[in-house]
Structure to design on (366 residues):
């Protein structure tokens, strides 16, 4: 695990894009008896709802000069069958070339799949410059009808076969299994709050996700429970209280699945708190838990001993309870809020002193 962590961190440092869709070329028909008709390329994308398919493109390459002759993006393909997380897409295109040809699947600048039929060759231009197009090992004879194709027998890496075409559907006797990342991550960002750093992230879907792990400057700092398996977006947050002004911080987010396998998801670099931020008298932490029933706690960091008041207000801004009003010494304080006598709903915590006001939103669900 340490070796894997080191290699992944190194990739983050040099700026590689870690997040790409699990997608591949699954079936091709390009040659039949007489004039070629119903030519197509089929592509499979796992959990496509987590990606913008306009960034995923199919390039067709001429094998004799190593140059592309056409391309299209997956959002322009026809929608096919859905098998679990796997969505099939079909690109019908007149003029897919015979003889030695190839194709690549590219997400932004990252290569997802590359192959050739009737021979292998080297790409002469971007985005496959210098890349070898490996021959799949089978080809269309040109003597059969347009109901034949070459196709993948299983997941990427399995054998290619020649047989009856199934555009937009799973190939004959094809078996598929989920091998993509357990978490599709859409956002990971940091927000500076006085002398603390608030980290937030959003998943678009999760598969057997036990928990997330956060690393700060190479050291583990927190574990946050995941949602298991879900196709719904979920938002997470963590407040890093143990940071100092003037220091650069780097955060790495990973997740652990139910088998204990760790996948590194994203990184944030050059997060720094300005020294002047310490001038504020206090800083409020996030309420936990939130939503709650009927009790939650709020951390209060006091940097300058002050008279501090905390009160509860409803949606209209009307004060309904004084939580406390006292002279607070420097240091960390935990404030308990009990709404056992109040109905379910959204409330606001107002915390103030002479020259500062902070507001938190809390939700009580009975």
């Amino acid at each position: 695990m340490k070796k894997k962590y080191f290699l992944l961190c190194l990739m983050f440092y040099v700026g590689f894009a870690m997040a790409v869709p699990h997608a591949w070329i699954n079936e091709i028909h390009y040659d039949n008896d007489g004039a070629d008709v119903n030519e197509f390329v089929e592509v499979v994308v796992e959990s496509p709802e987590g990606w913008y398919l306009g960034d995923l493109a199919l390039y067709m390459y001429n094998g004799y000069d190593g140059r592309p002759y056409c391309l299209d993006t997956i959002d322009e393909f026809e929608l096919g069958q859905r098998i679990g997380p796997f969505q099939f897409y079909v690109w019908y295109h007149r003029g897919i070339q015979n003889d030695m040809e190839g194709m690549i699947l590219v997400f932004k600048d990252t290569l997802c799949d590359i192959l050739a039929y009737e021979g292998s060759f080297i790409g002469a231009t971007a985005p496959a410059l210098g890349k070898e197009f490996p021959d799949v090992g089978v080809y269309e004879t040109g003597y059969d009808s347009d109901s034949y194709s070459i196709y993948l027998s299983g997941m990427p890496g399995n054998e290619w076969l020649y047989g009856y075409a199934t555009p937009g559907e799973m190939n004959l006797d094809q078996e598929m299994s989920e091998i993509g990342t357990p978490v599709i991550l859409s956002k990971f960002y940091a927000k500076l709050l006085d002398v603390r750093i608030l980290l937030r992230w959003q998943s678009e879907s999760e598969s057997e996700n036990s928990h997330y792990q956060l690393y700060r400057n190479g050291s583990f700092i927190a574990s946050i429970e995941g949602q298991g398996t879900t196709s719904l977006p979920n938002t997470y947050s963590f407040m890093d209280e143990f940071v100092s002004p003037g220091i650069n911080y780097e955060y790495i987010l990973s997740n652990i699945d139910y088998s204990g396998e760790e996948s590194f998801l994203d990184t944030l670099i050059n997060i720094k708190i300005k020294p002047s931020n310490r001038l504020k008298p206090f800083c409020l932490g996030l309420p936990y838990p939130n939503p709650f029933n009927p009790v939650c706690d709020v951390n209060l960091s006091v940097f300058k001993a002050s008279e501090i008041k905390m009160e509860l207000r409803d949606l209209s801004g009307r004060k309904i309870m004084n939580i406390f009003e006292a002279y607070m010494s420097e240091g960390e304080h935990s404030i308990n809020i009990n709404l056992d006598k109040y109905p379910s709903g959204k409330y606001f915590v107002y915390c103030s002193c002479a020259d500062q006001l902070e507001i938190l939103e809390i939700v009580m669900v009975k």
Observations:
- Residues 2-13 form the longest helix (12 residues).
- The chain has three domains: 20-164, 183-276, 280-364.
- The mean pLDDT is 85.
- DSSP finds one helix and 25 strands in the chain.
